[in-house]
Amino acid sequence: MSEGLDKFKEVLTRARTEIAKVIIGQDDVIEKSLIVICTGNHALIEGVPGVAKTLLVKTLANVLGCEFNRIQFTPDLMPADITGSHIFNMQTNEFVLSKGPVFTAFLLADEINRAPAKTQAALLQSMQERSVSIDRETHLLSPMFTVFATQNPIEYEGTYPLPEAQKDRFMLKISMNVPERDQEITLAKRTLGNDSPEAALHRVQPLVKMEELVELRQTLEQVVLRDELVHYMVDIIRGTRKHESVLVGAGPRATQSLLLASRAAAAVQGRDFVTPDDIKALALPVLEHRMILRPEYEIEGLTVAEVIRNILQEVAVPR
């Protein structure tokens, strides 16, 4: 492996160790979050209240030396509350830009589906172009700008479902489940002492600077992805459009997401080449939020996850 990939692996190994001191029992979630960050994309996190979604993003920001902002989405939230606006300064007799929380590196969009479509759409340009338009002026955002949007999977009253165009901009849908019994016991014991996750967060030290992280991203280009595996990915994505139970399948952006995520997963695990197992492991988080089943199959109890598993079995794996 090259020197650049060695450093990449070393930084991410240390990052996972530091994050695990704060976040208990979420190793898979931590790995997927790092994949999203390393590829310059965004993540949709689903989990019931209290599983440390906010704490996870705060910890990621602290460990990776990035700025963090949080927006609590509510029905009365306006687009200007996200992007910012110009405010008249009486002293200078001119309008001055008051930047919104979108001007950061890591943005937690908490319960994003509680805001109406107009407000949700305020994030679209920033997620796609890393820029934001305010009063006809375009302002660049941080090159590390990453959105972690959260949703509660069991509470839909008073919510506004995300449009397909916006869901497609999230590379992965990360399911954050409650910890196992022994992990929850560990969490309970730590909460009683001085080693609670919140206290541990303040002791976490940045491992890299944001500028170094941007440079490390470029080393992913050294990870080898054979043509046969590219064809394999394309066949999987195209299979979502042809399956009899699927009303809306995944688009070309899903192919790009699966390719980039698989390459990052290989690097995170210390390899300079992608394997079919990398692709299989990431197919579900890449595709689940991008597919809509036909109503008659949903009534029968079929899930998107089951359809994806069926497609993976049908597509021939390259040797």
Describe the structure.
The longest helix is centred in the first third of the chain and has 18 residues. The strands form four sheets. This protein has a five-stranded parallel β-sheet. Strands 3-4 form a two-stranded antiparallel sheet. A hairpin with a 4-residue loop joins strand 3 and strand 4. Helix 11 runs parallel beside helix 13 and helix 13 runs antiparallel to helix 15. The protein folds into two domains: 198 residues, 3-Layer(aba) Sandwich (Rossmann fold); 92 residues, Helicase, Ruva Protein, domain 3. With 319 residues, it is of the alpha/beta class. It has 15 helices and eleven strands.
Summarize the structure.
The protein has helices spanning about 5-20, 25-40, 55-65, 80-85, 115-120, 125-130, 165, 180-190, 195-205, 210-215, 225-240, 250-270, 275-285, 295-300, 305-315; strands at about 45, 70, 85-90, 95-100, 105-110, 130-135, 135-140, 145-150, 170-175, 245-250, 290-295. With about 325 residues, it is α/β, with parallel strands linked by helices. It folds into 2 domains: about 20-220, 3-Layer(aba) Sandwich (Rossmann fold), CATH 3.40.50.300; about 225-315, Helicase, Ruva Protein, domain 3, CATH 1.10.8.80.
